[in-house]
User: Which sequence fits this backbone?
């Protein structure tokens, strides 16, 4: 049960997140209206009457201030408007669906990031200065220094092309999702590509933190009591070593959210990241504003979750 | 059990399961080498789009991708066959003067409608439905509404003085009379261009589904075509199934059309390689396939699955005919010099990935394969002749003072940039003229080009339909709306006006003469024609796409494979 103080904290943060989302969407709203270009212009035919009709349909013939008032009224009711390019598509349900797809991949990537990062970090720390340590560190460095789009492209090449050809089409990674949500097998590769660079960061941090913790007196005491190495490491050392790792969970989550922009396009995932690129390229400014709003909300909520996680890891922290 | 140790074991198990999971993510596929002539049990055609469709409302359709679907969902009075001939659709026959369908003055067209045409909801189609659809499109003022601008009363509807065109009348349920303001030989072509404006829609469905949204939902997207939309997840997938007991022929064989929206076409091609798609290129994707993928496939064992077709787009260099060094008769030698100084073989190699994405434009501005095309190598402006080009430059501007500070303007894009940079290099090498390049954002570029503010610039046109009128009236006659050059030749105007009023077959010679006048004036420097690329599995049976359209889905089938 949450205390009154915690509830107030939570309420304040949620209000702040909502305010941030509105502020971000307003900045993007005014920003995109200053950009040259239009979703409606092509070099095929420019009929002023046709252009005027479509501008009227989208209220683009109103003053910017009147458009903004309509936009804010819409956003308050959860209505982000209609796509400029794909006529008749309401944006809010579209982005909600796409955000849920991104969440599926992002959450898997996050679990993977923390899991692999911790395992690599712990192994490297307890086997310090052995070949295991060097291998784990080298793996981390590779992950850290390779951009996720390179990892993604290499994975597609290996598992979708080479493996398909090698196995005669029996065993392969299937590119492009059938339906809204991917199968576990389809999610693994994009999650790996998305999370591997961050797993490397987690591994380096965990290793450094573990090395420090392992030298603490209470760990020596635990060992002196005759506890096995495994129990000392997992129950006594790892929990404390996790605190610095948790501190980077915020930026790490943001990195995964923004990293999905590239990964979703490479793997053909129908998520928010793919929409981000498509809407900008097609100048679908209504969707661009909507995507930014969703990202602002996602990042705000991710940060809030990380802050709440502190209280779980470190009992000294209270809100 | 110790919780931490348990977690450790779980992680290890997860890692193993994960590794296996990746490998068994999907199984399937198989060889395509043994396809026969029997139909496959699964008659599903699968292909990708790189973005969702814009609209399925014929009143608003303005993109080739939308038209590629609409041609299977709607019909018009007439349509194009696979060879781009105009053939009857809802009409019983193509009106002619000899069958009484066109009056002797060319102002009245009478269409006799088939009486067995039905919407996908079972309602019969009558002349009233055609009149409703055309009036609705004129009122909506979508991008192609002007296809109806020769119909009496169109201007009143456009100007909101009326809601119906007085030139459309029906004496009975199956006779439609269309009155034109002036003779227009291209009118039947515009009627056959039925994926936009002239496609017939159901008033009942539009009213039930909402004027703006009826076409977005399978239950209210009602057309007369052989297929209907069965499911749509915006920006993700589209599905279509045949209409039961469809009235036309051939009867649909494909039982399902499944379209996945995959932004990156390289990923889509990887899926095609895995037999996840049967085609890449349908739905107007044939101009978007990355050249590197085309070159890779061309060099591999699946090269026979590649098909190249001439597209309907021509790109050329436009010159300002009103002011600056290229203006008027005085600027003719300079215009010609700049055109002859371009080696189009090199241009195509560099900018079109060795001819994968485009080919040299050597037969006039009307694209290869279209009516009005002059023939391969028929355009002397497309010849590379550096020596003559230098002589012409020397006589027109011996000190190169007139052309000092020239800037070639284009709108951004990888293709446009490659063309611009190659032109810059060739003009420097072959003419000794330094031309600067300026990429201007798309909207500003079009606005300034329309206002004739540029001296030398990129120009291009993608034909809406296969008729020279589409090119001349939009681009080359005096004050043409999309000209951008200020080019004016009264002789050409008179020729085109006369040709526009004639039947297409009778008018072609005049249009070609008009093209010749432009060549004589050295009004442009031709560059390239677009090329479309299709990847199709060998077991997909049916006609090939043409310069404008994919094959109709009801002509396709899947063979055993």
Assistant:
């Amino acid at each position: 049960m949450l205390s009154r103080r915690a509830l107030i904290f939570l309420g304040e943060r949620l209000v702040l997140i909502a305010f941030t989302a509105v502020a971000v969407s307003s900045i993007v709203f005014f920003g995109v209206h200053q950009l040259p270009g239009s979703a409606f212009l092509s070099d095929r035919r420019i009929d002023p009457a046709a252009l005027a009709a479509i501008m009227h349909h989208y209220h683009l013939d109103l003053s910017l201030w009147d458009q903004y008032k309509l936009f804010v009224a819409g956003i308050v009711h959860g209505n982000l408007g209609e796509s400029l390019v794909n006529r008749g598509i309401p944006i809010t349900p579209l982005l909600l669906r796409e955000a849920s797809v991104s969440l599926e991949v992002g959450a898997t990537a996050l679990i993977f990031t923390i899991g692999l990062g911790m395992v690599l970090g712990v192994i490297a720390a307890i086997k310090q200065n052995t070949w295991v340590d060097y291998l784990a560190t080298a793996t981390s460095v590779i992950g850290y220094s390779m951009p996720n789009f390179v990892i993604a492209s290499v994975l597609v090449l290996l598992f979708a092309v080479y493996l398909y050809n090698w196995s005669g089409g029996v065993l392969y990674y299937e590119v492009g999702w059938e339906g809204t949500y991917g199968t576990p097998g389809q999610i693994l590769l994009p999650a790996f590509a998305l999370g591997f660079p961050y797993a490397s960061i987690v591994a380096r941090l965990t290793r450094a933190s573990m090395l420090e913790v392992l030298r603490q007196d209470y760990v020596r005491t635990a060992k002196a009591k005759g506890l096995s190495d495994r129990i000392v490491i997992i129950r006594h050392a790892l929990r404390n070593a996790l605190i610095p790792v948790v501190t980077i969970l915020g930026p790490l989550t943001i990195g995964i959210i923004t990293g999905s922009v590239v990964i979703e396009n490479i793997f053909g995932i129908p998520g928010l990241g793919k929409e981000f690129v498509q809407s900008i390229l097609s100048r679908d400014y209504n969707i661009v504003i909507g995507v930014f709003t969703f990202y602002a909300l996602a990042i705000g909520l991710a940060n809030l979750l990380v802050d709440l996680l502190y209280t779980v890891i470190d009992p000294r922290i209270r809100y | 059990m110790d919780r931490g140790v348990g977690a450790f074991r779980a992680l290890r198990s997860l890692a193993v399961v994960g590794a296996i999971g990746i490998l068994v993510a999907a199984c399937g596929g198989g060889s395509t080498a043994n396809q026969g002539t029997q139909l496959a049990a699964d008659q599903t055609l699968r292909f990708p789009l790189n973005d969702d469709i814009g609209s399925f409302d014929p009143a608003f359709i303005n993109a080739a991708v939308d038209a590629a679907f609409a041609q299977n969902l709607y019909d018009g009075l007439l349509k194009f066959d696979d060879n781009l001939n105009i053939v009857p659709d809802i009409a019983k026959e193509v009106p002619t003067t000899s069958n009484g369908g066109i009056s002797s003055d060319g102002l009245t067209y009478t269409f006799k409608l088939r009486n067995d045409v039905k919407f996908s909801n079972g309602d019969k189609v009558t002349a009233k439905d055609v009149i409703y659809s055309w009036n609705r499109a004129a009122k909506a003022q979508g991008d192609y509404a002007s296809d109806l601008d020769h119909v009496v009363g169109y201007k009143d509807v456009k100007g909101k003085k009326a809601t119906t065109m007085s030139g459309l009348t029906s004496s009975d349920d199956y006779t439609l009379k269309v009155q034109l303001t002036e003779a227009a030989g291209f009118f039947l072509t515009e009627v056959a261009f039925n994926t936009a404006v002239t496609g017939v829609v159901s008033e009942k469905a539009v009213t039930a589904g909402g004027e703006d949204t009826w076409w977005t939902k399978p239950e209210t997207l009602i057309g007369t075509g052989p297929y209907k939309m069965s499911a749509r997840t915006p920006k993700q997938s589209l599905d279509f199934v045949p209409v039961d007991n469809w009235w036309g022929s051939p009867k649909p064989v494909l039982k399902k059309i499944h379209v996945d929206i995959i932004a990156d076409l390289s990923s889509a091609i990887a899926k095609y390689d895995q037999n996840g798609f049967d085609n890449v290129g349908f739905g107007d994707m044939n101009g978007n396939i990355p050249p590197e993928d085309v070159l890779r496939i061309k060099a591999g064992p699946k090269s026979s699955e590649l098909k190249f077709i001439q597209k309907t787009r021509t790109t050329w260099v436009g010159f300002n005919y009103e002011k600056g060094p290229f203006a008027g008769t005085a600027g003719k030698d300079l215009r010609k010099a700049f055109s002859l100084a371009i080696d189009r073989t090199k241009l195509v190699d560099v900018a079109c990935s060795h001819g994968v994405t485009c080919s040299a434009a050597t037969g006039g501005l009307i694209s290869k394969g279209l009516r009005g095309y002059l023939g391969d190598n028929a355009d002397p402006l497309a010849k590379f002749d550096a020596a003559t080009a230098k002589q012409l430059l020397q006589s027109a501007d011996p000190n190169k003072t007139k052309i000092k500070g020239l800037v070639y303007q284009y709108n951004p894009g990888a293709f446009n940039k490659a063309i611009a940079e190659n032109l810059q290099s060739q003009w420097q090498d072959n003419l000794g003229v330094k031309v600067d390049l300026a990429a201007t954002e798309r909207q500003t570029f079009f606005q300034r080009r329309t206002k004739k503010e540029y001296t030398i610039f990129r120009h291009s046109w993608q034909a809406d339909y296969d008729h020279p009128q589409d090119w001349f009236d939009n681009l080359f006659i005096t004050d043409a709306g999309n000209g951008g050059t200020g080019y004016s030749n009264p002789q050409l105007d008179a020729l085109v006006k006369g040709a526009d009023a004639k039947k297409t077959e009778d008018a072609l010679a005049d249009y070609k003469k008009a093209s010749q006048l432009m060549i004589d004036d050295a009004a442009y420097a031709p560059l390239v024609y677009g090329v479309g690329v299709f990847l199709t599995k060998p077991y997909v049976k049916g006609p090939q796409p043409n310069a404008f359209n994919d094959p109709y889905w009801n002509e396709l089938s899947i063979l055993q494979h």
